[in-house]
Amino acid sequence: MAAPELQEAHQQRLGGDYDNAIPAYRQLIELDGACAEAWWGLAMCLMNIGEFDEALEAFEKSLEISPENLKFLLDLGKLQTMLGMFDEAKPVFEKIVALDGSAREADEARNQLRYY
After folding, report:
1. Of 8, 35, 102, 103, which sits most exposed with the smallest number of CB within 10 A?
2. Whole-number Å distance between alpha carbons of 45 and 12
3. pLDDT tens digits for 21-31?
């Protein structure tokens, strides 16, 4: 995987430059479809531009590759919650806590679970 290109795509995303970040992530995925971080970055961009169905698919792909990544799980659960997909989000948050109860992501997941 081309680490500088991935970092550049992340910087574009963080700067709100989705018009450049999305094609950059897609190109990285084309080169290495098993790059979970590129799928996650793409999902974050798609979520931020309101392409929620595509974002959900990209999050799912990132988690197929890296099923125990707490960051990916947390962001998926947050999107599901935002979309009213509470039955889907709750087990995601529970999984985060079960995987690593001391992680920062677990604290956020526990906060989310208080609404259930």
Report:
1. 102
2. 10
3. 999 999 999 99
